[in-house]
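Researcher: I need the complex structure. Ligand is magnesium ion. Inputs:
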Amino acid sequence: MSGTSYTYSQQLMGTTVSLKLFVENLTAVSAVFNAIEKLEARLTVNRYHSEVMSINHAAGKQPVAVSKLVFDLICKAKAASLLPDSKFNLAIGPLVKLWKIGFNGHSIPEKDEIARRLTLTNPHHIELNRTNQTVYLAKAGMEIDLGAIAKGYIADIIKLLLAQYNIFQAIINCGGNVLTIGYSPITADKQWHIGLKRPFAEANNLLGIIHVEDKSVVTSGIYERYFIFNDQLYHHILDPHTGYPLNNELHSVTIISDNSLTGDIYSTIFYGLGIRQGLSELKKKQNIGVIFVTRDKKIIIQSNQHFTFELTADDYQLISYS
Ligand code: AMP
Ligand code: MG
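Model: Output:
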């Protein structure tokens, strides 16, 4: 074990992906970035062609056979969409494409058009056939969007890939998604130190430090993609019931969990649940911890013993339920 670290970055999945290792292994590094590129090409809906887009293009026409990897993720995404009170919805695509938040050409859509697209976002209308490994979108115009969870799924796969190269200490950072592997060889407490971002500030402006070992740390923040029109902020996490950005007391939700797909699903679900319902739900979910950051400068934590948090911002109030 050495204290020397090696960091590699590439622009992928619409963000900067960085990989930090503690051994020099360029074969592993290129395998990782190649794998991410290939996985992104299968899962993306931001290009005309991908496996997921082949399902979308066939909406209302016919079922499409996909790879096991894509099928499994769609099954998990559908299950998460059907959880009670879930505001996660894999069928949200027609609304994401309408608003274009975070992309060129964003605007506030007409009410009627939002209402029309809402009729195309029912997750029950996504028909999965396990035997044939096919996905069928029952209505023309429906679109699957895995933007909320693809990075988490890919990060978990990269962890398995690194293990094939005997790498068991690393950090993969895909924008708001951080996956820590093993313990940290470069800190005194052997924990990884992950920054919690201050909403709407520069990336290095932090509210505090999350200390974890061998965990995923995923944040859904409304400051990641948004636009402002007439003093009103429109952000990228949409309410599948109204078709408008989810409106609640939160700036961000961070989930600390063993795997990153779980973190990615629950960061969106807990954003939708809000604090009161989220905290009560967490009593049943001992396998994850959560950090809520509110609009009125509170940081509310339920760690369930998965992490510790060190507050560095003196203008925020820390409320901890651990
Ligand atoms: P995240 O940053 O992981 O919270 O994911 C946000 C992205 O997920 C958005 O940019 C959309 O592509 C997509 N999305 C927006 N609203 C929802 C929703 N209610 N359920 C599932 N995915 C969503
Ligand atoms: Mg997410």
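Model: Summary of the prediction. The pocket of magnesium ion (ligand 2) is lined by residues 148-149, 220, 264, 267-268 (CB under 6 Å).
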